[in-house]
Design a protein that fits this description.
mainly alpha; three-stranded mixed beta sheet; 21 helices; 3 strands; globular; binds zinc ion
């Protein structure tokens, strides 16, 4: 008998507090009334304090030191390792600063929302500056604690994706720029030939809700373990493997938007629903990293969801639902439509090809503000200049520029690169699924369960007990390799656009 059972009450308390905080976050973004925010953020501040106390205290310190020397089961040692990571992440930060930061970010999202709505960067700038200052201060505490002398931004990247740093990402992103920018130029010249007028016709919202519900069910989203609501910015919240929540946003004059965000968030949700019962409600009972999570959502949304095989059994039903709008649109036309690529200003509406350029812009700005002294008032110009350089278009106002994303108001610096890492992971998994289960055949036959069974068995069920590289090499004998993504983009866009 080891000392693990003595740690259990602390783990349970941390989990309970974390669950409560997550529920408040979900509520703030979906159903909470506008004027609740000040009082709610005070409550969240107290719960965060309690979470900190349950994680950082003399008993837990003692138990972690003791357990390191004891014989543990594989699951116990994964949990101890994960707890140690979370512990090392928070411990170097003074508690008063941690609570003040949590209270600040709880309020910042509503300031951001107002600023975005009114195109008022000046309103958000002081809050953003304060958040960045905290992030830099916290990263410096952690760097000192770990004896790390490299760029501070590496510390933030490590929080979302263990093992990735600026050096690896600079190489990865430079390769991506070399691949994507010439493809965007080739594709932009031909894109005008794809008539996508049908997508902007009027689509009844209730019918769209039905379609999203049907799609979620089709890809395996279990409505006895999950709910689907609406929010301005679609997202997924997971409490445990039997309570996973997603949101979608509907637009009257855009059919694709809600469908693909449902498939995307559905991919996140399925990953969480597939986690083993033995792991859920423990520190390892969730997806292994942000990047790997995006790997699942993007696999569903893009590699699978934008393929001809996926729509072969589904498109007739969609046509039937929207007879008037889609009657004359053939499946081939629809496939070209959902894969039409054109430089655009809004990341969440960007197509599969240009998407990573939006990420590279954010990565370069984050790296700059975290590693250097900077002028907060100059960031909108820096943002706009980069859009002009990489995508050839310039935002006309900050709402469609620097104010478009919620992430920085939540303090999520270092998160954006995960989207690009995930996109590359998705292409790698997709390449493997082609040989392992003949994925196109499964899709054409409407056999989505075969795909979920394979993903659950080889990737999802392990939660955080394995890292990104351990999962990929366990499944296909190879670590993270962005070449799959580069090949995928070249092959896909060359084939799609060759007929135009
Ligand atoms: Zn996502």
């Amino acid at each position: 008998m080891n000392s693990f059972n003595k740690l259990k009450p602390y783990l349970d308390k941390q989990n309970a507090l974390f669950t409560a905080l997550t529920l408040f976050e979900w509520d703030n973004a979906t159903k909470a009334p506008e004027k609740a925010i000040d009082n709610t953020s005070a409550v969240m501040g107290i719960l965060s304090d309690e979470y900190y106390n349950a994680l950082i205290n003399d008993d837990v310190t003692f138990l972690l030191n003791t357990l390191c020397k004891e014989q543990l089961s594989a699951l116990e040692s994964s949990i101890v390792k994960e707890l140690k990571n979370a512990y090392d992440d928070v411990r170097p930060i003074p508690q008063a600063e941690y609570s003040a930061y949590k209270a600040l970010t709880a309020k910042a999202s509503s300031v951001w929302q107002k600023a975005k709505k009114n195109n008022d960067y000046a309103l958000f700038a002081p809050v953003l500056k304060e958040i960045i200052d905290y992030k830099k201060k916290f990263a410096a505490y952690k760097a000192k604690d770990r004896g790390y002398n490299g760029p501070l931004y590496d510390i933030l990247l490590d929080e979302y994706e263990k093992g990735f740093n600026t050096q690896i990402l600079d190489t990865f992103f430079n390769r991506l720029k070399d691949t994507i920018i010439p493809l965007v130029r080739m594709v932009s010249k031909k894109s005008d030939k794809i008539d996508k007028h049908y997508n902007e016709l009027h689509y009844d919202i209730d019918k769209q809700r039905e379609v999203s519900h049907r799609l979620a069910k089709y890809i395996g989203f279990d409505f006895t373990k999950g709910v689907m609501l609406e929010s301005a910015h679609p997202f997924t919240t997971n409490l445990h493997n039997r309570d996973v929540r997603i949101t979608t946003a509907f637009f009257e004059n855009n059919l694709e938007s809600a469908m693909f965000s449902t498939i995307h968030e559905g991919g996140h949700a399925l990953y969480e629903m597939h986690i083993d019962d033995a792991l859920t409600m423990t520190p390892v009972g969730t997806g292994t990293s942000m990047g790997f999570h995006e790997g699942q959502s993007r696999l569903f949304e893009n590699n699978i969801g934008r393929s001809r095989a996926f729509w072969t059994p589904l498109y007739p039903q969609l046509q039937e639902t929207f007879k008037e709008q889609l009657n004359d649109i053939t499946l081939d036309h629809f496939i070209l439509g959902i894969n039409k690529s054109q430089p655009s200003l809004i990341r969440t509406e960007a197509d599969e090809l240009t998407y990573c350029l939006h990420i590279i812009i954010r990565y370069e700005i984050e790296k700059y503000v975290i590693n250097n002294d900077f002028d907060i008032d100059l960031l909108p110009k820096l943002w706009n200049d980069k859009y002009e350089e990489y995508l050839g278009i310039r935002p006309e106002n900050d709402s469609e520029g620097i104010l478009q994303d919620i992430h920085w108001s939540c303090g999520d610096f270092g998160y954006f690169p995960s989207y690009a890492i995930g996109t590359a992971i998705a292409a790698q998994i997709y390449a493997h699924l082609k040989t392992a289960i003949n994925i196109d055949d499964c899709l054409e036959k409407g056999n989505f369960a075969a795909i979920n069974d394979y993903l659950k068995e080889h990737l999802h069920r392990f939660g955080k007990t394995k890292t990104t590289n351990e999962l990929l090499s366990g499944m296909m004998g190879e670590n993270f390799n962005p070449q799959y993504y580069i090949d995928y983009l070249n092959e896909k866009y060359t084939a799609l656009y060759s007929s135009l």
